[in-house]
Write a structure and sequence with these properties.
- It is a single chain.
- About 70% of the residues lie in helices and about 0% in strands.
- With about 500 residues, it is mostly helical.
- The relative contact order is 0.09.
Length: about 500
């Protein structure tokens, strides 16, 4: 006769699930409220969603329990807490962008906000686990919600973007499943710390199996992180999405992917197997270089920013390749600073958006649209210029400090050639960022009607841009405290 199964509730450590549970309840509450009261105001939906995100943020910072929970599939450590903070801050920063002057269909639908919260839950599950199955569940939960959010923009290009993203995502899911299968076959476990333990005991033999699993996983995470050659979807999907959602995609899904990559690839880099390090090295260099070279020839600012975000992802993979505590700290510092600057740049595109393509038949934001903008809207041109200088890595703006610390980490770990490549790519990037500045400040205007550049402006959007610009300009004030906090959490996680 089978013995009854006894589960100690205390050992499950259910409070570890609290952050994800808050947003799940919030998503269900929004759906139920919409069923009960038709025609809920978008301001109400936005504020109630932000409230649940704030509660989630408090649960993340307030959790001081054991590191593992829920049958040991959850792993709440320092890097998971930092990643969740970035995810939640970026999400709270993004949502008020729905309160634009013009009314868009998706922002009037309660389903948008429910899917948004489910998407955040998926990202959180990705970063608070080292179990390959739970990571996959989180990955697919967030991805399926994101595909739908893109399509809800209700334009032909949005539907095209969602289909492209879904198709590539299905391929990436297949790669992930194959990689997890091989790792399980090699080690008998789906938990990364157990996989590492068994592979080290077996001296990473059979090597062909480990290499195959690594290549499949690089293909899967490469899609989420927009690494070459899995990056081809990025410019088209960003172009078809609304500007705020494109900015959000350039930050949040990638930080979730970086944490998974950090847990898995750093273990492989330090295996002593040269081929594993070489595979990552090639991916990093190709991602940085090809993305920058392609960005040089773009005619649309949003597509340029898409290739720019691919290049920045290459910089972050360089930190994972280096694998030192300083490099891992540089990753989170860089991405925190990049988050405000990049979201600010995409918000500027949202502010100057017009319902018709007045400047180009295909593109919504061609460079010619910004010609002589300083003479039409000097404040808008100046703020956009600040974001471009920051993304180019010029001092004393935000991203410069992240790049400086990353290059320092590379040199200290004797990755001299990699440091040179990062510096050269940063120099190349200056050209295409400054191209927009030249159009805004040195070209003659194509129109004198300032209203064409302000049809979507609203007070919430102006406030968010102002906050992003202040953080971008005065980042030097925050760098040292951020470094102290991030280093503490990264070190506590053993990275």
């Amino acid at each position: 006769m089978l013995e009854p199964i006894s589960i100690d509730v205390l050992s499950l450590n259910l409070p570890a699930l609290l952050p994800m549970a808050i947003l799940t309840v919030g998503a269900l509450a929004v759906i139920c409220a919409d069923l009960a009261v038709k025609g809920l105001n978008r301001s109400f939906l936005t504020m109630i969603t932000v409230l649940f995100i704030i509660l989630d943020f408090g649960a993340v910072l307030g959790y001081n329990g054991p590191t593992r929970g829920f049958f040991d599939v959850l792993l709440v450590d320092g890097i998971s807490i930092i990643a969740q903070v970035i995810i939640l801050v970026a999400s709270a920063f993004f949502l008020p962008l729905s309160l634009s002057h013009r009314h868009f269909r998706e922002f009037r639908m309660a389903e948008f906000y429910a899917l948004f919260m489910f998407m955040i839950v998926g990202f959180q599950f990705m970063v608070v686990s080292d179990n390959l199955i739970l990571i996959f569940i989180g990955l697919e939960t967030s991805s399926l919600a994101l595909y739908t959010l893109i399509a809800m923009h209700n334009r032909a290009k949005a539907f095209e973007a969602a289909i492209k993203y879904f198709t590539m995502g299905a391929l990436a899911a297949g790669f992930y499943g194959m990689s997890a299968l091989i790792f399980y076959a090699l080690t008998g476990s789906v938990e990364i710390h157990q996989i590492e333990k068994v592979l080290m005991q077996n001296h990473f033999e059979p090597l062909i199996g480990v290499l195959s699993a690594t290549v499949f996983m690089l293909g899967a995470l490469g899609f989420k992180l927009s690494l070459v050659p899995s990056h081809t979807w990025t410019p088209d999907v960003y172009e078809g999405s609304s500007a705020p959602l494109a900015g959000y995609m350039s930050v949040v899904p990638k930080i979730a992917g970086f944490v998974v990559a950090m847990r898995l690839f750093e273990m492989l880099v330090f295996s002593g197997v040269v081929w594993l390090e070489h595979i990552l090295y090639i991916a990093v260099v190709l991602t940085m270089t090809l993305a920058n070279l392609t960005a040089l020839v773009q005619e649309d600012v949003k597509r340029m920013l898409a290739f720019s975000s691919i290049s920045h992802a290459g910089f972050m993979m360089a930190a994972i390749l280096i694998g030192s505590t300083q490099a891992n700290t540089a990753l989170f510092l860089y991405w925190t600073l990049f988050m405000f600057t990049n979201l600010g740049a995409f918000t500027m595109l949202w502010i100057v958006r017009h319902r018709e393509n007045l400047w180009d038949e295909r593109y919504q934001h061609p460079y010619t649209k910004f010609s002589g903008l300083v003479k039409i809207m000097p404040t808008t041109a100046t703020i956009m210029g600040i974001f471009m200088f920051a993304l180019a890595g010029m001092p004393p703006f935000s991203v410069f400090w992240g790049k400086l610390y990353l290059i320092s980490a590379a040199i200290n770990s004797e990755f001299i050639f990699l440091a040179v490549i990062i510096a050269l790519n940063s120099a190349i990037a200056v050209y295409y960022y400054m191209k927009l500045v030249i159009y805004m400040f040195l070209k003659e205007p194509v129109t004198a009607d300032a209203r064409l550049y302000a049809t979507n402006a609203s007070t919430p959007l102006k406030v968010i841009v102002g906050v992003a610009a202040i953080i971008t300009m005065f980042a030097i004030v925050f760098v040292e405290p951020l470094l102290t906090i991030i280093t503490k959490y990264v070190t506590a996680s053993g990275f």
